[in-house]
Design a protein that fits this description.
Chain lengths: 114, 111
Protein backbone atom coordinates (compact mmCIF):
# COMPACT_ATOMS: atom_id res chain seq x y z
CA UNK A 1 0.00 0.00 0.00
CA UNK A 2 1.48 3.40 -0.95
CA UNK A 3 2.54 5.62 1.94
CA UNK A 4 3.46 9.21 2.61
CA UNK A 5 7.17 9.32 3.46
CA UNK A 6 8.89 12.00 5.53
CA UNK A 7 12.53 12.85 6.15
CA UNK A 8 14.29 13.22 8.45
CA UNK A 9 12.60 11.26 11.23
CA UNK A 10 14.26 13.46 13.83
CA UNK A 11 15.79 16.92 13.43
CA UNK A 12 17.66 18.76 16.16
CA UNK A 13 18.35 22.43 15.51
CA UNK A 14 19.60 25.45 17.41
CA UNK A 15 17.08 28.21 18.08
CA UNK A 16 17.19 30.82 15.33
CA UNK A 17 18.27 28.39 12.64
CA UNK A 18 16.24 27.47 9.58
CA UNK A 19 14.93 23.95 9.05
CA UNK A 20 13.42 22.22 6.04
CA UNK A 21 11.19 19.22 6.55
CA UNK A 22 10.63 16.99 3.56
CA UNK A 23 7.71 14.89 2.42
CA UNK A 24 6.94 12.66 -0.52
CA UNK A 25 3.14 12.43 -0.86
CA UNK A 26 1.38 9.42 -2.34
CA UNK A 27 1.99 9.62 -6.08
CA UNK A 28 -1.55 10.13 -7.42
CA UNK A 29 -2.59 12.52 -4.66
CA UNK A 30 -3.19 16.15 -5.53
CA UNK A 31 -3.70 17.79 -2.11
CA UNK A 32 -0.93 18.10 0.45
CA UNK A 33 -0.98 19.16 4.06
CA UNK A 34 1.21 19.90 7.04
CA UNK A 35 0.05 19.35 10.60
CA UNK A 36 1.93 19.55 13.87
CA UNK A 37 1.48 17.81 17.19
CA UNK A 38 3.11 19.14 20.32
CA UNK A 39 3.97 16.26 22.66
CA UNK A 40 0.87 14.88 24.34
CA UNK A 41 -1.49 17.27 22.58
CA UNK A 42 -3.85 17.18 19.64
CA UNK A 43 -2.96 17.35 15.98
CA UNK A 44 -3.12 20.93 14.66
CA UNK A 45 -3.63 21.99 11.04
CA UNK A 46 -0.95 24.24 9.55
CA UNK A 47 -1.50 24.48 5.81
CA UNK A 48 -3.00 22.82 2.75
CA UNK A 49 -1.55 23.03 -0.76
CA UNK A 50 -3.10 22.36 -4.13
CA UNK A 51 -2.12 23.17 -7.69
CA UNK A 52 1.14 24.73 -6.56
CA UNK A 53 -0.36 27.19 -4.16
CA UNK A 54 -1.58 27.41 -0.60
CA UNK A 55 -5.32 26.79 -0.41
CA UNK A 56 -5.79 27.19 3.35
CA UNK A 57 -3.64 28.06 6.32
CA UNK A 58 -4.14 28.37 10.05
CA UNK A 59 -3.17 31.12 12.45
CA UNK A 60 -0.14 29.04 13.42
CA UNK A 61 1.20 29.28 9.86
CA UNK A 62 2.72 32.74 10.15
CA UNK A 63 5.47 34.44 8.16
CA UNK A 64 8.18 32.16 9.57
CA UNK A 65 6.62 29.21 7.74
CA UNK A 66 6.61 28.48 4.02
CA UNK A 67 5.80 25.49 1.83
CA UNK A 68 7.04 24.50 -1.55
CA UNK A 69 6.73 21.74 -4.11
CA UNK A 70 10.20 22.02 -5.64
CA UNK A 71 9.72 19.14 -8.05
CA UNK A 72 7.14 16.56 -9.06
CA UNK A 73 7.47 14.45 -5.96
CA UNK A 74 8.65 16.45 -2.93
CA UNK A 75 6.67 18.77 -0.68
CA UNK A 76 8.60 20.78 1.87
CA UNK A 77 7.91 22.84 4.99
CA UNK A 78 10.48 25.52 5.82
CA UNK A 79 10.64 27.16 9.22
CA UNK A 80 12.81 30.28 9.31
CA UNK A 81 14.42 31.40 12.54
CA UNK A 82 13.10 28.57 14.70
CA UNK A 83 11.83 29.16 18.22
CA UNK A 84 11.74 26.83 21.21
CA UNK A 85 7.95 26.52 20.86
CA UNK A 86 8.37 25.12 17.35
CA UNK A 87 9.46 21.85 18.95
CA UNK A 88 6.83 19.32 17.92
CA UNK A 89 6.10 16.38 15.65
CA UNK A 90 5.36 17.59 12.14
CA UNK A 91 3.15 15.39 9.99
CA UNK A 92 2.73 15.61 6.25
CA UNK A 93 -0.48 14.25 4.75
CA UNK A 94 -1.94 13.88 1.29
CA UNK A 95 -5.29 13.13 -0.31
CA UNK A 96 -6.59 12.36 -3.77
CA UNK A 97 -9.17 15.12 -3.68
CA UNK A 98 -9.95 18.05 -1.43
CA UNK A 99 -13.07 18.39 0.65
CA UNK A 100 -14.31 15.14 2.28
CA UNK A 101 -11.47 12.98 1.02
CA UNK A 102 -9.37 10.76 3.32
CA UNK A 103 -6.06 12.27 4.34
CA UNK A 104 -3.18 9.84 4.79
CA UNK A 105 -0.42 10.78 7.17
CA UNK A 106 3.29 10.14 7.10
CA UNK A 107 5.33 8.95 10.08
CA UNK A 108 6.27 12.50 10.99
CA UNK A 109 9.45 14.42 11.72
CA UNK A 110 10.24 15.09 15.35
CA UNK A 111 11.69 18.61 15.49
CA UNK A 112 13.65 19.52 18.61
CA UNK A 113 14.76 23.13 19.02
CA UNK A 114 17.58 23.69 21.52
CA UNK B 1 -13.74 28.59 12.78
CA UNK B 2 -14.51 25.00 13.57
CA UNK B 3 -14.12 23.72 17.13
CA UNK B 4 -14.18 20.00 17.98
CA UNK B 5 -14.74 18.75 21.50
CA UNK B 6 -14.01 15.11 22.36
CA UNK B 7 -14.99 13.02 25.39
CA UNK B 8 -13.85 11.21 27.40
CA UNK B 9 -10.15 12.02 27.55
CA UNK B 10 -9.39 8.54 28.92
CA UNK B 11 -11.36 5.32 28.71
CA UNK B 12 -10.54 1.98 30.28
CA UNK B 13 -12.44 -1.15 29.33
CA UNK B 14 -12.11 -4.87 29.77
CA UNK B 15 -11.33 -6.98 26.73
CA UNK B 16 -14.57 -7.88 24.97
CA UNK B 17 -16.45 -4.81 26.19
CA UNK B 18 -17.62 -2.01 23.93
CA UNK B 19 -16.07 1.46 23.86
CA UNK B 20 -17.79 4.67 22.81
CA UNK B 21 -16.08 8.00 22.13
CA UNK B 22 -18.11 11.12 21.46
CA UNK B 23 -17.33 14.34 19.63
CA UNK B 24 -19.20 17.56 19.00
CA UNK B 25 -18.45 20.16 16.37
CA UNK B 26 -19.46 23.77 15.98
CA UNK B 27 -19.51 24.55 12.25
CA UNK B 28 -22.70 23.43 10.52
CA UNK B 29 -20.86 23.64 7.18
CA UNK B 30 -18.57 20.74 8.14
CA UNK B 31 -19.38 17.69 6.05
CA UNK B 32 -16.55 15.22 6.63
CA UNK B 33 -15.74 13.47 9.91
CA UNK B 34 -12.79 11.07 10.07
CA UNK B 35 -11.50 9.09 13.03
CA UNK B 36 -7.81 8.41 13.50
CA UNK B 37 -6.01 5.91 15.72
CA UNK B 38 -2.55 6.84 16.93
CA UNK B 39 -0.28 4.38 18.66
CA UNK B 40 2.58 5.73 20.73
CA UNK B 41 5.16 7.45 18.54
CA UNK B 42 3.41 6.56 15.31
CA UNK B 43 1.42 8.29 12.60
CA UNK B 44 -2.32 8.98 12.93
CA UNK B 45 -3.97 6.18 11.02
CA UNK B 46 -7.39 6.68 9.44
CA UNK B 47 -9.73 3.96 10.72
CA UNK B 48 -13.14 5.13 9.54
CA UNK B 49 -14.82 8.25 8.22
CA UNK B 50 -18.34 9.49 7.59
CA UNK B 51 -19.80 12.16 5.38
CA UNK B 52 -22.72 14.36 6.23
CA UNK B 53 -25.12 12.64 3.87
CA UNK B 54 -24.89 9.43 5.90
CA UNK B 55 -26.07 8.76 9.45
CA UNK B 56 -24.09 5.62 10.24
CA UNK B 57 -21.21 3.62 8.83
CA UNK B 58 -19.81 0.29 9.93
CA UNK B 59 -16.57 -1.56 9.28
CA UNK B 60 -16.31 -4.85 11.14
CA UNK B 61 -15.98 -3.98 14.86
CA UNK B 62 -15.93 -0.25 14.29
CA UNK B 63 -18.93 1.99 13.62
CA UNK B 64 -19.46 5.72 13.48
CA UNK B 65 -22.74 7.58 13.88
CA UNK B 66 -23.47 11.17 12.94
CA UNK B 67 -26.25 13.44 14.16
CA UNK B 68 -26.12 16.58 12.01
CA UNK B 69 -28.90 18.32 13.87
CA UNK B 70 -27.15 17.98 17.20
CA UNK B 71 -23.69 18.35 15.60
CA UNK B 72 -22.22 15.31 17.21
CA UNK B 73 -20.67 12.09 16.04
CA UNK B 74 -19.49 9.01 17.87
CA UNK B 75 -17.09 6.11 17.44
CA UNK B 76 -18.20 2.69 18.62
CA UNK B 77 -15.78 -0.19 19.01
CA UNK B 78 -17.29 -3.56 19.86
CA UNK B 79 -15.54 -6.65 21.25
CA UNK B 80 -12.49 -4.64 22.18
CA UNK B 81 -9.07 -6.28 22.08
CA UNK B 82 -5.77 -5.25 23.73
CA UNK B 83 -4.46 -4.12 20.34
CA UNK B 84 -7.23 -1.52 20.22
CA UNK B 85 -5.35 0.34 22.97
CA UNK B 86 -4.25 3.68 21.49
CA UNK B 87 -5.18 7.35 21.33
CA UNK B 88 -8.22 8.00 19.15
CA UNK B 89 -8.81 11.39 17.54
CA UNK B 90 -11.98 12.64 15.92
CA UNK B 91 -11.83 15.43 13.36
CA UNK B 92 -14.08 17.61 11.26
CA UNK B 93 -13.26 19.55 8.14
CA UNK B 94 -13.31 23.32 8.35
CA UNK B 95 -14.77 25.12 5.35
CA UNK B 96 -12.71 23.02 3.00
CA UNK B 97 -9.83 20.66 3.42
CA UNK B 98 -8.39 21.58 6.81
CA UNK B 99 -9.09 18.96 9.47
CA UNK B 100 -9.71 20.24 12.96
CA UNK B 101 -8.97 17.57 15.53
CA UNK B 102 -10.36 16.84 18.95
CA UNK B 103 -7.99 16.50 21.90
CA UNK B 104 -7.98 12.73 21.75
CA UNK B 105 -9.15 9.81 23.86
CA UNK B 106 -6.66 7.39 25.37
CA UNK B 107 -8.29 3.96 25.21
CA UNK B 108 -6.87 1.20 27.38
CA UNK B 109 -8.14 -2.34 26.89
CA UNK B 110 -7.09 -4.73 29.62
CA UNK B 111 -7.17 -8.51 29.22
Amino acid sequence: EPEVTQTPSHQVTQMGQEVILRCVPISNHLYFYWYRQILGQKVEFLVSFYNNEISEKSEIFDDQFSVERPDGSNFTLKIRSTKLEDSAMYFCASSVGGVDQPQHFGDGTRLSIL
Amino acid sequence: GENVEQHPSTLSVQEGDSAVIKCTYSDSASNYFPWYKQELGKRPQLIIDIRSNVGEKKDQRIAVTLNKTAKHFSLHITETQPEDSAVYFCAANQAGTALIFGKGTTLSVSS
